[in-house]
Amino acid sequence: MLHRPDAFNARCPTRQVLDRIGDKWAVLVLILLEQETLRFNELRRRIDSISQKMLSQTLKSLERDGLISRRAFATVPVTVEYSLTPLGRTLAGTVAALTQWAEAHIGEVEEAQRRYDRGEIAA
Amino acid sequence: MLHRPDAFNARCPTRQVLDRIGDKWAVLVLILLEQETLRFNELRRRIDSISQKMLSQTLKSLERDGLISRRAFATVPVTVEYSLTPLGRTLAGTVAALTQWAEAHIGEVEEAQRRYDRGEIAA
DNA sequence: GGATGTTGGTTCCCAATAGATACTAGGGAT
DNA sequence: ATCCCTAGTATCTATTGGGAACCAACATCC
Q: How many structural domains compose chain A?
């Protein structure tokens, strides 16, 4: 029935990509870098409530996946710039569609949550 | 600079939606239900390696958000059907674009990972 | 001249979450 | 009687996330 790579099979590598997208911090980093190259602490300041650890970890994963590139300059203190690769740029476009959906439909989602919490399980 | 709801602010509800999309199981459920209405154990069998607990939890969240609807029938044993709501259907379309990206670019991602793991931090 | 702040991280610890396993109820089939 | 089916829940543990402290090397403040 499924003629394409089966993302529902845990062994399928497509699932790995899906798992990466399923990282909220990665999504936010991609969206920010789509607009401009940023340094580590600039990213940290812009993404409210992200910890250094998670930012560092997220950037490392994205770099490993070839989605962003890291450039360090031997200034004092050291300067590190992160930017999207061409591959990352194609993903950022797709991810932007998700944030647009979120912004467009957040009202409906919140209303559904209120209805659900009041006990109305209506469709 | 940002004229739209600020997803980078933790207090912005848009971020909640982003967090929901950032759930790998939710994404897989949405994709499956886009094609047909399915029962609990059918979903469980199709999504390789999901546990009963996580499926149950994921379905409950999606229902609360108004993205899927649950219908129980008093058969023996009880039958429970899950299907997309109109709202969920609009999201499933957007999410499908992500899986298409994953399937199209998985090769590039894997090659980047191999390069990174060999120590070539090249852009 | 010592305290503090900057850079981009890493390490440690604890709380929260994910996942595996077992259990429930109310039957049906063997 | 015993095992299986349904759709979950309860419990326990493994993994992960987040907070805070620490690092080097310098610049500035007082």
A: 1
Residue contacts between A and B (CB atoms, under 8 Å): 162
Distance A21 CA to C13 C1' (A): 28
Q: Cβ(B37)–Cβ(B85) under 8 Å?
A: no
Q: Is residue A4 part of a domain?
A: no
Q: Which of B15, B71, B102 sits opposite A14 (nearest CB)?
A: B102
Domain that holds residue B35: 13-117
- Say which nucleotide is closest to residue B38, CA to C1' distance: D7
A116/B64 CB distance under 8 A: yes
CATH of the domain at A104: 1.10.10.10
Take residue A24 and report the two structure tokens written for it. Answer: 């909220």
Residue B13 pLDDT more than 80? no
Domain membership flag for residue A123: no
Band (B4; pLDDT cuts 50, 70, 90)? very low
pLDDT tens track for B17-54: 777 777 889 989 999 999 999 999 999 999 878 999 99
| Predicted local distance difference test score (pLDDT) of residue B32 | 92
Cα(first)–Cα(last) distance of chain B, in Å?
29
